[in-house]
Write a structure and sequence with these properties.
The chain is an alpha/beta fold. 37% of the residues lie in helices and 15% in strands.
Length: 310
């Protein structure tokens, strides 16, 4: 820190500025380079970052791992079991604690641009601590990874990850092409408190949810968002009308008792796909993510289409 400047004093000043970004950087950075095409405010990106923080445990963390960035922490929620985050990388406060992040002295931060002035994704305020590279929940995980790879000079790693996933998708399409073309699929999870089903499909307010992305990669057919609430909601009394036409369903089990609650619902038990045994249960919350979640979902869809042809 500069002479006479304390962490707490700087952070207090940031809050007083309403999130405005000072002209200086607070963290010591590695030798920097400016890359053409980087987002506004993301200049001074280290040529070889050594202390990277991923604010979002889904897309930010997964992209950081795919690009082999040296992580010193991540936020939002605990990493999913299928994401290979080293045990040495700590889970930080959530929502992000700016003082904690400042104390870790990152030289690069990855953060979604979902709500840059919010508590959960405070991209604007983080930019005063270290250079920040964004991801966009309206883009596919491939687009976000490719952009980060380009900005960081790690295009080869991004391309390798994207190509490996494309090969997996191609193999599933080769095995289940007829079933993929024929079957309407609903990717869902259940909210036991509100007693409503949430459909992860393209076109809702959540943007590019992962089940919809992978289904689209496979060439599959999902539930039309026009039949759902703004964020994919289906009221329990509408379950038959909306999910009745589905030939098969991918059901996320968050491990919070929601699966058991759903199976007790009579309207759920009456659905044709349920009665035919065409429901594949996928453990964990895989609504959002990037390459590792895409791979996890690809395996689940492979199993679902196998059920559909059994």
């Amino acid at each position: 820190m500069g002479r006479g400047i304390s962490r707490r004093g700087v952070l207090g000043g940031l809050m007083g500025l309403g999130g405005a970004v000072p002209a200086f950087r607070l963290a010591a950075a590695a030798p920097a380079q400016t890359r053409a095409g980087t987002p506004p405010g993301a200049t001074g990106i280290p040529a070889d970052p050594q202390r990277v923080i991923a604010i979002d445990s889904r897309i930010s963390l997964e992209c950081a791992l795919a690009l082999d960035l040296p992580l010193i922490g991540y936020s939002h929620s605990r990493a999913r079991p299928w994401v290979p985050v080293p045990a040495s990388v700590p889970f930080l406060a959530a929502p992000p604690d700016l003082e904690q992040i400042l104390a870790l002295k990152p030289d690069l931060i990855l953060c979604p641009d979902t709500a840059p002035a919010s508590d959960w994704w405070p991209l604007t305020r983080l930019a005063a601590i270290a250079p920040v590279l964004p991801s966009n929940h309206r883009l596919t995980w491939q687009e976000n990874l490719a952009s980060l790879g380009q900005w960081l000079g790690r295009e080869a790693l991004a391309e390798k990850t994207i190509a490996a996933h494309a090969a997996v998708i191609a193999s599933i399409r080769a095995r289940h092409g007829a079933a993929i073309a024929k079957n309407l699929v609903a990717a869902i999870w259940f909210d036991p408190i509100k007693r409503r089903t949430m459909v992860s499909t393209a076109g809702t307010g959540y943007g590019q949810v992962m089940p919809a992305q992978v289904l689209a990669e496979l060439g599959g057919h999902g539930i039309d968002a026009a039949r759902l609430g703004p964020y994919g909601e289906v009221a329990l009394e509408a379950l038959g009308d909306v999910l009745g036409p589905a030939d098969a369903m991918l059901l996320q089990d968050f491990g919070n008792g929601a699966l058991e609650a759903l199976t007790r619902e009579a309207l759920w038990q009456r659905l044709p796909a349920v009665r035919a045994g065409r429901v594949e249960i996928v453990k964990g919350n895989c609504t959002f993510g990037a390459c590792y979640t895409a791979a996890y979902l690809a395996t689940a869809y492979d199993a679902l289409y196998a059920r559909a042809t059994a």
